[in-house]
Design brief:
This protein has 246 residues and is α/β, with parallel strands linked by helices. It contains 11 helices and 7 strands. It has a single domain (4-137, 154-181, 233-243), classed as 3-Layer(aba) Sandwich (Rossmann fold).
Length: 246
């Protein structure tokens, strides 16, 4: 398997697939994390703007969308030109006390958690929140289980949240799960699989073999054969992290 760093960097090479085929996030999850009042928000690891668009539609003001990969920043800037996009990482500085919330979608697992939390605590105003979200496919149908067998599935490292809870200045962590449905056709499913880091970092021959098996799955599985569209069921895990301030 490719290194953690190589996998994190791989998204730049599949920016088109990522932008076109990845799911967004449930607005209910954003509402639970941040509440109904419009906030000043920093989004870190913003990618192509999947979560950014939901934050904007919920009425929040983006202080900055922070993204280290130029190819993803370009997609975000084209889709949401009104949002300030900053080249940077979770562990790099923004102005002190500039935001009511720092949010991260599908990316906190790539960060140096201790350094990222310290930065969030400095950037956040009093009573600010660090919001973390991940979308995970639920293998609720036979064809989805077969897709996972073909192409894999990321999971959070066991015990990561206990380690985060023990990291100063974390005061508390609360979790809630939400449902998300993501509609795909054959081409979009192939793009989605291509955007997964554990597929994007395969050598060319192995990646072609994986995608060919996904094509065969769509064309031949009883649950998909002849379908114009399918629905991928996701579980969105949302974590509301409160940080103590000096």
């Amino acid at each position: 398997m490719a290194s953690r760093s190589a996998r994190a960097q791989s998204y730049g090479g599949v920016a088109d697939h990522y932008d076109r085929a990845r799911p967004a996030y449930p607005v209910e999850a954003v509402s639970w994390l941040l509440g109904p009042r419009g906030l000043d928000v920093v989004e870190v690891g913003a990618g192509t703007g999947k979560l950014t668009a939901v934050l904007r539609s919920a009425g929040h003001r983006l202080v900055a969308a922070v993204e280290p990969l130029a190819q993803l920043r370009a997609k975000l800037g084209a889709a949401l030109p009104e949002v300030p996009v900053v080249s940077g990482r979770a562990e790099e500085p923004l102005p002190d006390r500039c935001a009511d919330a720092v949010v991260v979608g599908q990316a906190f697992n790539w960060f140096d958690a201790e350094a990222a939390v310290e930065e969030a605590a400095r950037v956040l105003r009093a009573r600010g929140v660090l919001g973390l979200l991940w979308n995970f496919r639920e293998d609720s149908q036979a064809w989805m289980r077969e897709l996972t067998a073909i192409a894999g599935q990321d999971v959070l490292r066991e015990g990561w949240n206990e380690e985060l809870a023990a990291t100063p200045p974390v005061a508390s962590i609360e979790r809630r799960d939400f449902r998300l449905e993501h509609h795909v056709d054959r081409d979009r499913l192939l793009g989605l699989v291509s955007s997964w880091s554990y597929v994007a970092t395969l050598d060319d021959a192995e990646r072609r073999r994986v995608l060919a098996r996904v094509e065969d799955l769509w064309d031949g599985h009883p649950g998909l054969a002849g379908a114009q569209e399918a629905v991928l069921a996701y579980r969105t895990e949302a974590y509301r992290v409160l940080l103590g301030h000096d």
